[in-house]
Specification:
By secondary structure, this protein is α+β, with helices and mostly antiparallel strands. It is built from 15 helices and 20 strands. Strands 11, 12, 13, 14, 15, 16, 17 and 18 form an 8-stranded mixed beta sheet that branches.
Length: about 575
């Protein structure tokens, strides 16, 4: 009688808490960090960054070379890589993606700055991509653009209206999107044919929570396995919690206070309803001078951050900028008040100069606490601040339509600084219909644009570093936003269920919000590690038993031979 079949092993599921909504699953439109995080799991770019030290490594292409004049780049897409539906990945998929962005303004919404300088993209055969640029472009190995499958997307009629939610969504990354219920969860399964090898988990679930408090409580209870972007007090509350390991990393994000400088489209048509006073750079500088950034970091970030300055966080070393003494804007409410007087905005009989609206995201502890702090700071210089906390989508709609005065925002910078700098060029403002582009603050400045163009074509790294710092200095001087802080990445995970996660970089790096997908891809389930160790132990035990049996046999045989010899004597 045959033994009954062993019961099927339940899938290993990694559950990740998120509090930010998804703005789009369409990689050409996705801007929210939560959306781009999912996109990196679904689609590989042309080249990638290693987890260990963030060096350029193989993506869909495994080889590349440039012409002597740096105007032509040739990439090789090797044979054998497949889309999740089994179709081969070819150079034609790459050329299709970039050409869609070149010909469709809407397709440039999320990552348009990467292709603005492209003259042409062709695929002469299945393995070769040739990109020609108008001027030398130093970022050709830093094109953070998800490559989509041509055989799927060539059937899409309108990029603007495409939700990209026909499940399972065909992709090239380590995970395949299988289900999304807005405001509840996102589910992905492991791509077993992924060219780097299948992930160690079977499924990856992103679970929505209304706020970070609820997410952290779920981690403590074991309802989810991984949480990031915790508030400092939440992070501290997990110290010594059984089964939970914390990770404090120098993050690649910054938090900013956007100041509406008089929003316009690319054609110069005013949009939105920002307060007219904010068009005056003297007023914007005064607002910045009224904020005590050191106190903000201590009281709101509880020290888990560094005071803000330039657009590139200090984790990126050589690109990071701090103002020299002559360019510093120290906290000085009296000087800020005098500047507002000089700009033509004296205090009224009630002590108020004018009122401004500040919008932030409901459920985010930082926005709630910093909003109250800024309300008091602005009151000290005669500005009445109306703080409004809204949903992610409402915040996105208001900042996109420029219907704000001040707004909390933040960005994750890439390893190459070009993307974060490109958000502030005139070309990134929306088109005449208010659509397209990915401007951060509606900043448009000829000096800034000239510097940006120069750094994009500068292959001498030392010279480019200097240009990047000049760009940040110009942004700081014109104040379309105040960089408030460079937040530490405060993360926690269930170490009783997952023994390790791959961080980027290896030393002191982050698990989530990486320049890649290594954190999820490298997750090590504890039960599989234990099973593997158990198998090795059993193997060792069996091996040891065999050795013991053999040893006993040798002893017995030896004894028998001795007995036989003695009997003969």
């Amino acid at each position: 009688m045959s033994a009954p079949p062993a019961p099927a092993r339940p899938p290993v599921v990694l559950k990740v808490a998120i509090v930010q909504q998804i703005d789009s699953l369409n990689p050409f439109l996705a801007v929210f960090q939560s959306s781009t995080e999912v996109g990196r799991l679904m689609y590989d770019p042309l080249t990638a960054y290693t987890a260990a030290d963030q060096a350029v490594t193989e993506g869909l292409a495994n080889r590349w070379e440039s012409s002597a004049d740096k105007l032509t780049w040739t990439f090789t897409v090797p044979d054998g890589k497949k889309w999740s539906d089994g179709a081969p990945i070819t150079a034609h998929d790459v050329a299709f993606t970039y050409n869609l962005m070149l010909t469709d303004e809407v397709a440039r919404t999320a990552n348009g700055s990467f292709v603005t300088n492209f003259a042409s993209v062709t695929a002469p055969d299945d393995r070769t991509v040739v990109i020609r640029t108008k001027t030398p472009q130093v970022t050709m190995l830093a094109l953070d653009v998800p490559i989509v499958p041509r055989h799927v997307w060539e059937k899409v009629g309108s990029v603007k209206d495409h939700a990209n939610d026909a499940m399972p969504v065909v992709g090239s990354g380590p995970f395949v999107l299988t289900e999304h219920v807005a405001g509840q969860f996102i589910k992905l399964r492991a791509n077993r044919t992924y060219w780097r090898g299948a992930p160690k988990v079977d499924e990856l679930h992103f679970v929505y929570f209304q706020n970070s408090d609820a997410a952290v409580q779920a981690l403590a209870k074991g309802e989810v396995d991984l949480v990031n972007r915790m508030a400092p007090a939440q992070f501290d509350s997990l110290q010594g919690k059984p089964g939970v390991t914390r990770n404090k990393a120098q993050g690649r994000r910054f938090t900013e206070l956007m100041i509406n400088p008089g929003a316009q489209t690319r054609t110069g048509v005013p949009i939105g309803d920002g307060h007219p006073a904010l068009r005056d750079v003297r007023v914007r500088r005064a607002l910045a001078q009224a904020i005590d950034l050191d106190a903000l970091v201590q009281r709101v970030n509880l020290g888990y951050a560094e005071k803000g300055a330039g657009l590139v966080p200090p984790v990126f070393g050589k690109w990071h900028w701090r103002p020299e003494a002559s360019a510093q804007r120290p906290f000085d409410p009296a000087a800020a008040g005098a500047a507002l007087d000089a700009a033509g905005f004296p205090r009224g009989a009630d002590g108020t100069r004018f009122a401004l609206r500040l919008i932030g995201r409901a459920g985010r502890a930082y926005d709630e606490q910093a909003g109250e702090y800024l309300k008091r700071s602005m009151s000290d210089v005669g500005i009445a601040l109306d703080v409004r906390l809204v949903s992610d989508n409402q915040l996105n709609e208001a900042t996109t339509a420029a219907t704000y005065d001040l707004a909390f925002s933040g960005w994750s910078a890439n390893i190459d600084p070009d993307f974060i700098l490109g958000l502030h060029t005139c070309a990134q403002r929306p088109g005449a219909d208010g659509k397209g582009g990915t401007t951060d603050t509606y900043f448009c400045d000829e000096t800034y644009d000239r510097l940006y163009a120069r750094q994009l074509s500068e292959f001498d790294e030392d010279k480019r570093v200097e240009l990047v710092k000049q760009l940040q200095a110009r942004f700081h001087d014109q104040v379309p936003a105040v960089v408030l802080a460079y937040d530490n990445a405060l993360e926690g995970y269930r170490s009783d269920r997952f023994t390790r996660f791959t961080t980027q970089p290896a030393q002191g790096g982050v698990i989530m919000a990486q320049n890649g997908m290594w954190g999820y891809y490298g997750a090590e389930p504890a039960e599989r590690v234990a099973r593997a160790r158990g198998s090795r132990w059993i193997g060792l035990a069996i091996g040891g038993a065999v050795v013991v049996v053999l040893a006993l046999a040798v002893v017995l045989v030896t004894r028998r031979r001795r007995a036989t010899a003695e009997e003969r004597e």
